[in-house]
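G., the chain you wanted modeled:
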Amino acid sequence: MNSKLILINILRWFILLFIQIILLRNLSFYDLATPFIYVLFLLLLPFGIPNILLYLIAFGTGLTLDAFYDTLGVHASACVTLVFVRIQFISISVNRDGFDEPEPGLGNMGFKWFSLYSLLCIFSHHLVVFVLEAFKISELSYTLMRCLMGGIFTFFIIILIEFLFYNKRLR
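Predicted structure as tokens:
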């Protein structure tokens, strides 16, 4: 990885966490749809990062968010789950030797691939967040509804951000 890519990812981390903590912390539609756009940072990390470093970055990002949300490791475990799903999906769908692109963005990989990739990662993240937050079987239907609505809301915001900033590169 070159220094420009590292600087871009550090800046992306600060901006997305700032927006999540300052603007979106208390944004919720009827306590069903809660957006977590900070996952875009984890989704857009370059392909070439070693898996152990990817897990450490995800854990640190989740702990940072846990410190501001007072959730005691909920976001850290959700971020690690997201990275696990990311690694599995990329290992199945992308030829590790044949990729020329540094990161899995919408402009680099196409809409269909990026949509499936982000939906799987977002829903795995949201499922862990909301199940650990509720931690009751009696509220399972409400928890799954929150996961679905929050995942769809987060997905649309992430696609909007991708179309605004990153789609102008290759396609």
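The chain has seven helices and no strands.

Shout if anything looks off.
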